[in-house]
Amino acid sequence: MQLTLAGEYAIRTMIHLAENESRGTATIFEISETQEIPEMFLRKIVPLLSSAGLIKTKKGKKGGVFLAKNSDSITPLEIIQAVEGPIALNKCLIDKEFCTDVRWCSVHTIWCELLIDMKKKLSSKSIKQIAMESFQRRNSLK
Fold first, then answer.
1. What domains sit in the chain, N to C, each tagged with a CATH number?
2. Considering the chain, what is the average pLDDT of its residues?
3. Cα–Cα distance between 87 and 60 in angstroms, integer?
4. What digits encode the pLDDT tens for the residues 129-140?
5. DSSP H or E stretch at residue 132
6. How confident is the model at residue 67 (pLDDT cuts 50, 70, 90)?
7. Coil, strand or helix at 104
8. Where is pLDDT greater, at 22 or 75?
9. CA distance 66 to 28
């Protein structure tokens, strides 16, 4: 499994929204410029995040995107799954028909354990915590 640019850009977008949560709405252009995400790519990611209930969009002069729920309750796992789909280290963990071994697969156990650990790690921090850590790191570099 490899995180695609869509997954990384989605996380960056959500970090930006969490860092600016008190401000409310952010424009696609602002997020694109600040997070160095191609605007056309971001326009493809926003509907996926919206469909997953992570952000809301607002049209009009003062339009843009904003978090649909508190950043304390959003995890990187949710964000990745919103744009990438289900996470799996091997196709057999998603599609039981994929594996041709009708007996017990010798590596199935390790894939399951790794998947559980990875999901646990991706759920261990909220996007708000990550945004705060990012903000602190940026300020320490100044």
1. 5-86+125-140 (1.10.10.10)
2. 87
3. 36
4. 999 998 888 888
5. helix 127-140
6. very high
7. coil
8. 75
9. 10
Polymer length of the chain: 142
pLDDT 10s digits, 27-64: 999 999 999 999 999 999 999 999 999 999 999 888 89
Q: In whole angstroms, what is the distance from residue 49 CA to residue 41 CA? A: 13
Judging by beta carbons within 10 Å of its beta carbon (0-12, 13-18, 19+), is residue 77 exposed, middle or buried? middle
Pure H helices in the chain = 5-19, 28-35, 39-51, 76-84, 108-122, 127-140
Residue type for position 126:
S
- State the pTM of this model: 0.84
The helix/strand/coil state of 1 is coil
Which residues are CB-contacts of 105 (< 8 A; sequence separation ≥ 6)?
92, 99
